[in-house]
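Incident log, structure service

09:12 report received: a user says their structure output differs between two submissions of the same chain.
09:20 pulled the input from the user's history:
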Amino acid sequence: MTASTSSSGPTAAQPVILDVRNLRTYFFTYDGVVKALDGVSFSVRRGETLGLVGETGCGKSVTAFSITKLIADPPGRIMDGMILFKGANLLWGLEREAKFKPIKKTNRVKVTRWYHRIKRNLERMNAVRGGGISMIFQEPTSALNPIFSISDQISEALLLHRGDAILDGLLGSTPDGPGVAAAKDELVRAARTNDSGQLRAAADAFGAAVHLPSIGTEAFYIFRQAWADPEAKLPELERSLRRLHFSGTQRHYLKRERKLLETSDGLKQVFMREMREGKVFGNARRALNGRRTFLRLRTFYYGVWGVRGHVRAPIRRETFWQTVGLLEGVSIANPVQVARGYPHELSGGMLQRVMIAMALSAQPELLIADEPTTALDVTIQAQILELMRDLKRRVGTAILLITHDLGVIAEVSDRVCVMYAGNVVEVAPVKELYKRPLHPYTQGLLNSIPRMDEPDKKLESIPGSVPNLIYPPSGCRFHPRCPHAMPICKEARPPVTLEGEGHTVACYLYNGPPYRG
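09:34 re-ran on a clean worker, output below:
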């Protein structure tokens, strides 16, 4: 297996967007303390794709949940380390959230938590999740709410993370502007040709004339099946434009929502400064919270039944058609029907694509993809991976890709981080790792996959299984399964050494210079 030659990874000059240092995450169970992550360190640069690989149970998903602070507490707990996102320590104040007291003659620990401090840190994390760090979850059925439609759930993400752009687009639209009539005539001509590509181009031009791209998406679906009599669809198009003629109450509500978003953005900046500088900016936070409360109370009647439906109608329609556009981007057939449907009406692969659309909707600076293509067939996998690559090119998004598929890693990753039993055992550029794997565990993983250039080669498996992390092996955690184990491997954890440019390994078989990070 060879790495893709088309990947142009980021240079060393690109800033590090995520820096994980000595991360330790434990789970406190009745049987004992599970040391799921015990000293994990790696970094991701802007515009880079880092592949995180390893067997089931090695800690890949726990790493992703720790970065986003989604570990269920209890029983899980991030114990130590630093997670630096754009220089802000996401674990700032962690040491003040709980205290731990060992229970005598057992392997268990009594934990006392201060939930008001945990809540305050979760408020800070809300400044990061979505637009900063977004995540594609491994199990979409547990991440989607069964009682809300697909459109409602993606619309919520859009409003939370791109609400300012949505409101600016609505307030800046020109349904009666110059060029709209000509674009409407072109739509009718394109519909008569029954050519989907030509109709799409005309619909996009119509959206540009109105200064609202979602109107173009809506126009495309209005005229898609109207090749026999496109003029009959013109009243429906006029109704669509009518949603952009706001009443005075609607326009006032949109402007008030824009001010609320500005206040929320100010709070996010304060929270980021707190994590970056390690200080509490109490006065700034209180002032912004007071302004947000004032704006909400000043127009409380917008929450009255009947009024709320009227004033939110433009936003609801706008986010629906933006949702349709996002579902088109992940190759979902009949996106209008899917957007109106509910999670139980979709297959596992369709739900996975909905989750991917939701994660990409915020155009995050870091995308954590936890097995994003597991439930998809091969052709759709290629489309989704290309979509992620396109996001990386357009926005500069960094991607942390968690997968078992070493073929996917070879195709899309710039660097690879190999994990085993809660430890990082090897990190290298993708071509270097496939050409010269150093750690015995990495060699075992690569020897267990078939090769097209060696069809008669017998596949090898790694003997044994991942150890019980309540009682992990001493020294190197891989030594019970390692064919090259030495007495020193059982005594102390091997140091991380540098064995080439950007190639580090934790193994006593190598004696390169110590890696200082």
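09:41 both user submissions now match this output. Likely a transient worker issue. Closing.
09:42 reviewer note: Residues 19 and 43 are 4 Å apart (CA to CA). The radius of gyration is 26 Å.
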